[in-house]
Amino acid sequence: xxxxxxxxxxxxxxxxxxxxxxxxxxxxxxxxxxxxxxxxxxxxxxxxxxxxxxxxxxxxxxxxxxxxxxxxxxxxxxxxxxxxxxxxxxxxxxxxxxxxxxxxxxxxxxxxxxxxxxxxxxxxxxxxxxxxxxxxxxxxxxxxxxxxxxxxxxxxxxxxxxxxxxxxxxxxxxxxxxxxxxxxxxxxxxxxxxxxxxxxxxxxxxxxxxxxxxxxxxxxxxxxxxxxxxxxxxxxxxxxxxxxxxxxxxxxxxxxxxxxxxxxxxxxxxxxxxxxxxxxxxxxxxxxxxxxxxxxxxxxxxxxxxxxxxxxxxxxxxxxxxxxxxxxxxxxxxxxxxxxxxxxxxxxxxxxxxxxxxxxxxx
Length: 363
Known about the structure:
Order of helices and strands: HEEEHHEHEHHEHEEEEEEHHEHEHEH
CATH class of the largest domain: Alpha Beta
Structural class: alpha/beta
InterPro entries: ATPase_NBD, Type_II_PanK
Number of strands: 15
Keywords: ATP-binding, Coenzyme A biosynthesis, Kinase, Nucleotide-binding, Transferase
Number of domains: 2
Oligomer: single chain
GO cellular component, one term: cytosol
Strand order of the largest sheet: 12-11-10-14-15-8-9-13
Protein name: Pantothenate kinase 2
Largest sheet: 8 strands, mixed
Helix content: 25-40%
Radius of gyration: 20 Å
CATH architecture of the largest domain: 2-Layer Sandwich
GO molecular function: ATP binding; pantothenate kinase activity
């Protein structure tokens, strides 16, 4: 029998631990142009309720015993990687929430363009009140929560990449690590570049429509039907061709997720004139690399203007692309006097959803 996660094509990407539930809705949404992100909380005191989630988590990403012993609240981060119209994804999300016993017809914190576009449908069909939070503010709040206040169940201690005079180092984060001021780069369907001085002082300084949505759209010409397939094709090419960060890279382990679903692509579903699987992998790999090469030039140009050394990447289309991001930033690091620090988080796609959810306080 399928679990609710399989039934509604949802995947648990990560978890965080909270001291209390921030609001009475118990869940929040980030509705983007191509993907919907859901976060919700459960009490760790309810073992029976919590066990259902444990059975569907990829356990190598979490310290399960640490979560069990915490006895507080856990926030789950889910995404629907299967390609559907956003309206259908919304239906799946609320179908899951209702069957899981989490749905309540009350105020729900939301962010993303879809929280405006689908507000009428959400309120009339699902009988909720949409409490919308500004997208940029939500991303910044989520950034501060994930890098500062929110404890996650990840087994590895966070690191960041430091590029110094042509060499790349993986540096362990500690209490002395300063992330801000920085540029926060949100790579969703489009791209936003946000200058962040502190949690209350920030502005969107640039962006581009050439983001993950464009890459996904072009890849659909190959028969790529969902987000998981896109990541699988890219990762497969990386593995087969021995892609790495270069001989000068000094790495001692990495904590970032490897979110790759089982591919649903078959040779019969693809246009015959495009050739074999290797060509499809190469095409996806090249279009992603082209996007990040162009984007990195813009990022380094803007960062040099503000004299920033720190760059934070977030958004679901950052997943599995850390290597090409580092390579591309490194190529243009001369604009930053050959010194730049690049930060990722394994919950990179949930900055907005977490920021909005934790900003909505209890009524």
